[in-house]
Fold:
Amino acid sequence: MNWLNSEAFTLFGQHILWSDMIGNIFGLAALALGWRRSLWTWPVQFVSGLILFAAFFDHLTGSAGKQVVVMAVAAYGFWQWNRGRGKAGDGHIAPRFATWTERGATIAAAAAGTVAVALLFKAYPSLSWDPWPDAYIFVGTIVAMYAQAKGMVEFWFAWLLVDLVGVPLNFANGYAFSGFVYVIYGALVLWGMRDWWLRSRRSPQPVLEGAPA
Structure:
């Protein structure tokens, strides 16, 4: 797997590695498939994590460990969507807005997770290039994937919040290629958010068990 860490090409003065390019391509494909509510979004996300895990395993154990978490959440998402297929009447999951309880729990978990992961990164500097932004992006990604697995429209907002930090951070650190990729992510997020928002209004709302029809 050494070829994954070799240079694919040079762009904007950056030496683009095969692992970075392939991972970004799979990431964009996974997001586009998520927009279409295709079950394939999760296998593609899993493969992306697997490729990056293989690229990082020998020399960046912290980054490799993050990809293990991403793959685990991707497997969970596949299981959840497979269970929920057909609820929208078109063979796919039915998008919905989270309840206020779910929103509160998600925000609290994201905040606590970011602090905990950042402190872990600070305690073990070899795990991260910049503890707080790295923790924010990592935890935000996991939260977004979890909300996506649950079919929540809010997962697009979570991705947007990740992009708002990821784009300027990459440009500020000289990673113009990754920055432009995050810009594309942002455009897909806005289009996907609109599509899921409209579908959630057309989808039938679940009736609580025991409630009158």
User: Anything to note?
Assistant: Helices lie at 18-35, 41-56, 61-84, 100-123, 131-149, 154-172, 176-202. The beta strands are 7-11, 14-17.
